[in-house]
Specification:
A hairpin with a 2-residue loop joins strand 2 and strand 3. By secondary structure, this protein is an alpha+beta fold. The mean pLDDT is 81. The chain has a 4-stranded mixed sheet with strand order 3-2-1-4. It contains 1 helix and 4 strands; from the N terminus they run βββαβ. The termini are far apart.
């Protein structure tokens, strides 16, 4: 039996267009803050906490930087 992984796209059943809105944690380069978005709305913003992984911070800055 072949052990293949299957990735489901759960957003197909949603009524809203999820590809057009921000969801998750981003780095706002203009302010230098980390910002979380939920369904396109700004939910939280702030400077990184001392217990946040430096590796995660650098990866987020590289891959999820936005200019708002």
């Amino acid at each position: 039996m072949d052990a293949e992984q299957l990735q489901l796209d759960l957003s197909d059943d949603c009524d809203t267009d999820q590809s057009a809105v921000l969801n998750g944690m981003y780095y706002e380069a203009t302010t230098g803050l980390f910002v979380s978005f939920v369904l396109g709305r700004r939910h939280w913003e702030g400077k990184p906490a001392a217990d946040w992984s430096k590796q995660w911070q650098e990866k987020t800055k590289r891959e999820r930087a936005i200019n708002d």
